[in-house]
Inverse folding.
């Protein structure tokens, strides 16, 4: 009989233990088991990017990762982006540039953007649009999002 | 998704054992970008998920100027296109690995999963065929090799038997003056399923003016990826010219047996095979000449 599995992982720098069934996605575990509802569910099939988290150094769609795969891994979610001192520059830029309306896509965009700018601090607009092609937004039309990313990039490089 | 068991074998022998014990009720898990969607949607079912990502042979990417390139079946796309030896020697493979899904999907999706999922539209298979890749398979009865062009047998079906796992894919070392390329047509810029795709590879002579050999393969225009044996062979010994490329494109079009569906019509798809064959051959020629 498939049972419940004990998983030990690290989320936003904190050692974290949880119990889950092998069929549960990492997204389900984050939201329903751990109560970390910052990571959003849009499509549940890998297309929308609302559930983006950093998994062992790469952005992935957490709806297409099993919770049990988190064993021994390092995960960063939207809850790990801001610091006690305040918002991350990417978050601040999204606010200042009005890069969100309903907000459901925003955590995914912010996690993906932060990963891009850490890896490629000089990404140009084309690269930004390409990198974010796996994040869908039904509200903004993307332009304000791209402007926010360029703004965050300028501030981070200042 | 239904209740399911999960195991993480640490060796190839353990992976094969786990697969063999459950037979058809076991499924290997690499990046999960096909499998988890299919299990959730009820298109596949399984009692046991065998996560093969901890098996060393399935993760390696190794290149040797003699033996060529071996890519572990579970190595994700980003590791493939970030590998300096792959980038330098197999730009055609980089074309495919860097257009599958999104950056998020490329963080997980593997070449092995693309092959084993055996979708007619799989974007990594045509270029593997064009490069003469061989699939290395392990099972309860030992190991065997199958040419990638003989691997898929129908939509979602392939030569793997119960208990077998794909270990890796091996591509021969590139010959002098060779090049390859993959292109697909999709109505958007990113994140879509190919209406048609073509992978081509060429070997030129030292002058760069004559074909020594060529291989061409198609996606999304038949129940399986198509290896266009005659189209490639038609170029052997010919001078590089628009006429020779056009003749090969015509032969490739003759091998396409597509269907009408929401993504495209038969006529459009056959037309696209012609366009993409010409373009991929011309890119492969440029790469073979070191012009790109
Ligand atoms: C949003 C999205 C976009 C996508 N875009 C593209 C695209 O542009 N082009 C494209 O070609 N595909 C695309 N795909 C499909 C998918 O990402 C690819 O086919 C990918 O390469 C599958 O690899 P994986 O490692 O995730 O495979 P998995 O899902 O882990 O496995 C796929 C299948 O192969 C079997 N399998 C895996 N490894 C082995 C092994 N070693 N031995 C035996 N069987 C094995 C599994 O049991 C399963 O049946 C997309 C998917 C999503 C969700
Ligand atoms: S919810 Fe995961 S990609 Fe949409
Ligand atoms: S702000 Fe509503 S989906 Fe992006």
């Amino acid at each position: 009989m498939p049972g419940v599995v004990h998983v030990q992982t690290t989320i936003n720098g904190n050692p974290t233990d949880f119990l889950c069934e092998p069929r549960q996605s990492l997204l389900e575990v984050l939201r329903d088991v751990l109560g970390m509802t910052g990571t959003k569910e849009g499509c549940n099939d890998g297309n929308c990017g609302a559930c983006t988290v950093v998994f062992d150094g790469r952005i992935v769609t957490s709806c297409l990762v099993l919770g049990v795969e988190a064993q021994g891994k390092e995960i960063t979610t939207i809850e790990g982006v801001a610091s006690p001192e305040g918002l991350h520059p990417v978050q601040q830029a999204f606010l200042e540039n009005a890069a969100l309306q309903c907000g459901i896509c925003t955590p995914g965009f912010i996690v993906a953007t932060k990963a891009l700018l850490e890896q490629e601090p000089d990404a140009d607009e084309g690269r930004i649009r390409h990198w974010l092609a796996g994040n869908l937004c039904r509200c903004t039309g993307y332009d304000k999002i791209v402007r926010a990313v360029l703004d965050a990039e300028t501030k981070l490089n200042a | 998704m239904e209740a399911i068991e999960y195991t993480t074998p640490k060796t190839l022998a353990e992976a094969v054992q786990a697969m063999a014990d459950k037979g058809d009720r076991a499924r290997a898990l690499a990046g999960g970008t096909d499998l988890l969607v299919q299990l959730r949607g009820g298109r596949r079912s399984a009692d046991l998920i065998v996560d093969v990502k901890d098996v060393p042979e399935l993760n390696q990417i190794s290149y040797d100027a003699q033996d060529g390139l071996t890519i572990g079946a579970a190595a994700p796309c980003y590791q493939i296109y970030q590998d300096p030896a792959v980038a330098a020697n197999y730009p055609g493979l980089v074309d495919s690995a860097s257009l599958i899904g999104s950056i998020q999907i490329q963080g997980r999706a593997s070449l092995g999963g693309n092959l084993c999922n055996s979708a007619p539209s799989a974007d990594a298979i045509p270029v593997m065929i064009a490069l003469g890749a061989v699939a290395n398979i392990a099972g309860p009865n030992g190991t065997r090799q199958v040419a990638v062009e003989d691997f898929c047998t129908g939509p979602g079906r392939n030569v793997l038997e119960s208990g077998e796992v794909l270990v890796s894919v091996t591509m021969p070392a590139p010959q002098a003056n060779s090049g390859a390329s993959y292109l697909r047509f999709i109505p958007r810029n990113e994140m879509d399923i190919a209406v048609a795709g073509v992978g081509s590879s060429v070997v030129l002579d030292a002058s760069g003016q004559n074909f020594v050999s060529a291989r061409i393969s198609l996606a999304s225009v038949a129940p399986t990826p198509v290896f266009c044996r005659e189209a490639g062979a038609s170029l052997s010994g010919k001078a590089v010219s628009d006429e020779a490329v056009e003749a090969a494109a015509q032969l490739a079009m003759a091998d396409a047996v597509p269907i009408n569906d929401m993504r495209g019509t038969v006529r459009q798809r056959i037309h696209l095979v012609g366009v993409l064959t010409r373009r991929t051959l011309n890119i492969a020629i440029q790469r073979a000449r070191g012009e790109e």
Observations:
- Chain A has a mean pLDDT of 97.
- Residues A 41-44, 46-51, 61, 63 surround FE2/S2 (inorganic) cluster (ligand 2) (CB under 6 Å).
- Helices of chain A lie at 26-33, 89-96, 106-119, 125-131, 143-157.
